[in-house]
Amino acid sequence: MKIIFYLLVCFQILYAAAQGPYQINIDLTASKEDRLYVVMNLPDIQEDTVEFHLPKIVPGTYRISDFGRFVHTFNAFDHLENTLEVSEISTNRWLISGKPSRVEYWIDDTFDRMEGYDEDFIFEPGGTSFEADRNVFVLNNFGIIGYIDGYKEVPFELNIIHSKDTYGATALEKNVQNDTLDIYFAADYNFLVDGPIMYNQPDTLTKNIAGAEILISVFSPQKVVSAHDIMENIEDLMVAQSNYLGGTLPVKKYAYLIYLMDYESLSKAMGALEHSYSSFYTLPESVADQLPQFVRDVAAHEFFHIVTPLSIHSEQIHNFNYITPEMSRHLWLYEGITEYNSIHMQVQQGLYDMETFLEEIQEKITNASVYPLVSFTKMSQKILEPEFKDMYRNVYEKGALIGVCLDLALIKYSKGTLNLAGLLKQLSHKYGKENAFKDSELIDVITAMTYPEIGVFFNRYVQGNEPLPLEEYLSWTGISLRDGGEKRLAMWGNFKLGLNDNNQILALATDNLDDFGTQIGFQQNDIFYKLNGNELNIDTWRDLLYDFQENTIADTKVKIELIREIKGKTKILKRKAKAETYQYQYPDELFITKEATPQENKIRTYWINGL
Question: Looking at domain 487-585, which of 2.30.42.10, 3.40.50.300, 2.40.30.200, 3.90.226.10 is its CATH number?
């Protein structure tokens, strides 16, 4: 059977090679109205009728994207240049009658507003931007390039024509033909769309860290942040991460692509999307002083995806279905453990002190407490369904706390010979980036590799819906919880804060105002201008709102000024209301007990300093 399997694999490889690659031609200099024209020369198609697909969803996003909605004027041709009949089956699928040799289409970018899609936007790190006027192009390839169903495993060759004064930054393999033509190579569709590319006037920096080539590319319209600024702020983090992973980084190249916005984005948020060998960031340029630290904080998480899911992943990720995805049940691993590693690494490598580390854990305990107790594996499998989609953020909260518990349990039951980092290394060796585990078997595999108690933990707290035994597990390290106390705090509206183009504080998500917010009458996109005569801006809002909540007495008068656009005119609205307060229970605090036993001190030392 092994010989037959080997021959089948060889045949599949030879067959794919015989097909020849896709050859995709995109001319960035011909972009019009934030659209690109995509020409795809196809491999030798065998079927008389085929489907062309663009992704409905892509790995790492956990929400529907429907990139097919951005396509216009889709045409297909045979090898004799005859136009073939094309019919749209659904948003992301086109039926082509005949053996196509080439397809061509225009595609819109996703950063811009489209009629009917303002509310159903693509979060910018997973989107595209074609800005010919500024000569900057964000190419998340899954939002631009599709594939013929059944021919996803064929190699791809991507030819990009660009202006002389721009540079394409990416982790993909690139062959620079001349100063206006780059050719990129990918073994298959999964690899192609796993490598974002950003073209802009070059602000790049490359440095070798722990055996890996680290590339940083920044687009900052007002030149307020540079690649040098970012590298200066994350270099020690990269070194610490390499030490945490054993002294070297398990990739040859990694790219940080950073796009700064000098306009209000559709999402009104900042963030990043991880890839196997890169991560792409979108952030408002207006908060330039916070950007290097923000990138550092996010990079601490995103970079660890080189372990999960790059080296440890299920069949659902390895053979990702871009049209009808089957979600894995192991978000606790892909996102939760990645998040735990990002904070544990920093205390172990001396970037955090112990107090900061415990504060990070406590914050996650508090944040996780607002979510209902459900089976984490069930939630992961059904994360796209209405019942569970709003629970996704909990993968970074409870998911990280699962990491805390697993690490401590492994140290305790192995008597200091195995920790979570060691288990991940064993799993990486067992599977690696080319081999996927069966989704239903991973927990049994981990239990067999470790201890029966680990299986009980998974059964009760990850597959089951019991509360995590954090207090018990932390007590093994001499760490206890103490009551944080209660206090009456002032309500201030119960809405989200955002920023507009002028760096002013916006009121967002005002559908569920508290009693105080109802008195004031906050509306979506109001500028929250002044609070008791003090201007709220990017520098003052935290201190002002904190002081207001902590020190305002019930029924005292509160003065708020809002700036609102009414019938095309901007007006300042002055409102008064009586302060409303509520009883707030501060989170319990983690602390190291003075009475910790030698055994507890030993486990804590193993946990914080490594084995």
Answer: 2.30.42.10
Question: How many whole angstroms separate alpha carbon 295 and alpha carbon 185?
Answer: 28
Question: With 0-12 CB in 10 A as exposed, 13-18 as middle and 19+ as buried, what is 279?
Answer: buried
Reported as type and span, the H/E element at residue 53 is strand 49-53
Q: Are 282 and 271 in contact (CB under 8 A)?
A: yes
CATH architecture of the domain covering 203-306 = Orthogonal Bundle (1.10)
What kind of fold does domain 309-479+593-609 have according to CATH? Neutral Protease; domain 2 (1.10.390)
- Taking only the tens place, the pLDDT of each residue in 86-136 is 999 999 999 999 999 999 999 999 998 765 555 688 999 999 999 999 999
How does pLDDT run across 321-368, given as a tens digit for each residue? 999 989 999 999 999 999 999 999 999 999 989 999 999 999 999 999
Q: What is the helix (H) or strand (E) element at residue 94, kind and residue range?
A: strand 93-97
Distances (CA, A) of 501 to 112, 219, 264: 15, 17, 5
Contacts 24+ apart (CB under 8 A), 342-349: 342/300, 342/301, 342/304, 343/300, 343/400, 344/403, 344/407, 345/240, 345/241, 345/244, 345/300, 345/304, 346/237, 346/240, 346/300, 347/608, 348/244, 348/608, 348/609, 348/610, 349/240, 349/243, 349/244
pTM: 0.84
Q: Fold for 18-115+130-200, please state it.
A: Immunoglobulin-like (2.60.40)
